[in-house]
Specification:
Pfam family, one: ECH_1
CATH class: Alpha Beta
Helix content: 40-55%
CATH architecture: Alpha-Beta Complex
Subunit structure: Homotrimer.
Radius of gyration: 19 Å
Shape: globular
CATH topology: 2-enoyl-CoA Hydratase, Chain A, domain 1
Strand order of the largest sheet: 1-2-3-4-6-8-11
Number of strands: 11
Keywords: Acetylation, Fatty acid metabolism, Isomerase, Lipid metabolism, Mitochondrion, Transit peptide
EC number: 5.3.3.8
Organism: Alaudala cheleensis (Asian short-toed lark)
Bound molecules: octanoyl-coenzyme A
CATH superfamily: 2-enoyl-CoA Hydratase, Chain A, domain 1
Distance between the termini: 48 Å
Strand content: 15-25%
Number of helices: 10
Order of helices and strands: EEEHEEHEEHEEHHEHEHHHH
Largest sheet: 7 strands, mixed
Length: about 300
């Protein structure tokens, strides 16, 4: 039994497995064999698997800004699990179908004026998404084709490789301090593992959002490429990583990431409690409301 708020992912059938596919499409004439199930779409994410290369393309499609709402995070975790359980899939490229935005990070409305039960469920879903992505056995490549603040940056940082569109208007970083909130320790750990302690410390304290060229200099992204070459490059990088035997790469990845993953796993419930205590404070609620108002004002 899953505790309340835990996604019962382990209980779901792998929807990509042709043998266990529940029923043929209504358009499928009776008696004909099932066509290979290659794509999967839900409300906020579209996934397409090329079974010949073993590479899936995951596209965020939740306009206006791909904010990581509870529904989004749930779909994200389920999509990752489906791919992970599909033997034909060895790697996933994560990108956005929304122009100019990779992801605007956690949906701030999920953290404003909600119940303790809601905060618990939401935060568990944030943890679940990160645990699945950061520990994935698949090769994960982020093709960052737009701005990527806070939780959006965490998604990119959790991948094995980051390629960003060469557009100085796109920025990336953990800007929590600008909202008057603090990046949780596992956001920080993930950041430190990519850019090192000094850069992470300065960037986190200042809540910096780094324009793409600066992000490259800091090592926050691995490569910049012209926007129209992004997917091509992501596919080339993926092919390079997939040229190695999976087991050696996977064991190495586990060795590099285990300590950080174990830290959250050991303190998961405490981390939820801390989040609830923090986000329930009137001063934090005020900061978040003011930030949302600032976003709206900036627009008008
Ligand atoms: N959550 C909810 N709504 C959002 C978010 C968000 N993260 N970001 C933008 N929106 C909304 C805007 O309010 C606006 O709504 P409306 O249309 O109703 O006015 C709509 O999306 C479109 O936004 P913009 O007009 O600003 O769109 P632009 O294309 O001009 O800019 C940006 C896009 C650059 C993404 C911009 O919206 C932005 O900077 N957003 C804020 C990003 C941000 O700071 N995210 C941080 C979230 S916090 C987080 O991820 C981690 C927190 C972990 C710690 C928690 C401990 C308490």
């Amino acid at each position: 039994l899953c505790p309340p708020g835990v996604l019962p992912l382990c209980c779901r059938p792998p929807a990509w497995d042709r043998a266990t596919r529940p029923s043929p499409s209504p358009l499928q004439p009776p008696g004909l064999p099932l066509a290979p199930c290659r794509s999967f779409t839900n409300n906020k994410i579209h996934v397409e698997l090329d079974e010949s290369s073993g590479v899936a393309m995951m596209k965020f499609k939740s306009p206006p800004v791909n904010s990581l709402s509870l529904e989004f995070l749930t779909e994200f975790s389920i999509s990752l699990e489906k791919l992970e359980n599909n033997r034909a899939c060895r790697g996933v490229i994560i990108t956005s179908a929304v122009p100019k935005i990779f992801s605007s990070g956690l949906d701030i409305t999920e953290m404003c004026g909600k119940s303790v039960e809601h905060y618990t469920e939401f935060w568990r879903a944030v943890q679940e998404m990160w645990l699945r992505l950061y520990s994935s056995n698949m090769v994960t490549v982020a093709a960052v084709n737009g701005s990527s603040p806070a939780g959006g940056c965490l998604v990119a940082l959790s991948c094995d490789y980051r390629i960003m569109a060469e557009n100085p208007k796109f920025s990336i970083g953990l800007n929590e301090a600008q909202l008057g909130i603090v990046a949780p320790f596992w956001f920080k750990d993930t950041f430190v593992n990519v850019v090192g302690h000094r850069i992470a410390e300065r960037s986190l304290q200042l809540g910096s959002l780094h324009p793409a060229p600066e992000a490259l200099k800091l090592g926050l992204v691995d490569e910049l490429v012209p926007e129209d070459k992004l997917m091509e490059k992501a596919a080339a990088v993926m092919a390079q990583w997939l040229a190695l035997p999976d087991h050696a790469r996977q064991l190495t990845k586990t060795m590099m990431r285990k300590a950080v993953l174990d830290r959250l796993l050991a303190h998961r419930e405490e981390d939820i409690k801390n989040f609830i205590t923090f986000v329930s404070k009137e001063s934090i609620q005020k900061s978040l409301r003011m930030y949302m108002e600032m976003l709206k004002k900036r627009k008008s």
